[in-house]
Amino acid sequence: MYEVEANIDDMNGEIYSYLYDKILNIGALDIYTQSIYMKKNRPAVKLSVLCKKDDLDKVCTEILKETTTFGVRYKQLNRKVLDRKIIKIKTKFGNISIKVAYYDGRVLKYTPEYEECKVISENFDIPIRKVYDEINYETSKYIKLISRK
Predict the structure, then answer these.
(1) How many CB atoms lie within 10 A of CB 66?
(2) What is the DSSP-derived secondary structure letter of residue 41?
(3) How many CB atoms lie within 10 A of CB 131?
C-alpha cells in the first residue's frame, strides 16, 4: 500500500468533493484531508490518498491534473486489516448489506452500508441515526444467533 500526499494552499475548497469521487473511482482505498499551516503561517490542506501499488501512477497523475499542487510525495506503508465480508440481513426496511469484520474467526464488529441507510432514511423520511439504530439492533440479534452455531 502507498500513501500519496500533497500540501495545497491555493485551491477552492469545493474542488475537494469532486476530487474525492474521482480518486476513489480510479481505485484509491481511502482519501482524506487535514487542515495544516505551511511556511509563513499560510493555512493549507494536506491531501492524503491511500492506494495499491498498481494504482499509484494513476492517483499521482490525477492529483497533479485536478489540483493546484506542483508535486506529490508518496511512501510505501504496511497495514494490518481484519478479515471481512458483506452479509445480507432481513430488516423491517428490507434486506440490508452489513459489513462484518472478524478477528481470529469471531465477529469483532459490524456496520450497515451507508448508501443503503441513506436511501432508507430518505424513502421512509426518518433520521439516518434511527435507521442505523434499527439495523444495528437487528444485526446484533442475527450475529448472536449465528455465533451460537
Answers:
(1) 15
(2) G
(3) 23
pTM of the model: 0.78
- C-alpha cell of 44? 493549507
* Tens place of pLDDT per residue across the chain (149 aa): 999 999 999 999 999 999 999 999 999 999 999 999 999 999 999 999 999 999 999 999 999 999 999 999 999 999 999 999 999 999 999 999 999 999 998 999 999 999 999 999 999 999 999 999 999 999 999 888 776 65
- Measured in whole angstroms, the distance separating CA 143 from the mean position of its chain's CA atoms is 24
Q: CB–CB of 106/139 below 8 Å? A: no
Type and span of the H or E element at 38: strand 30-38
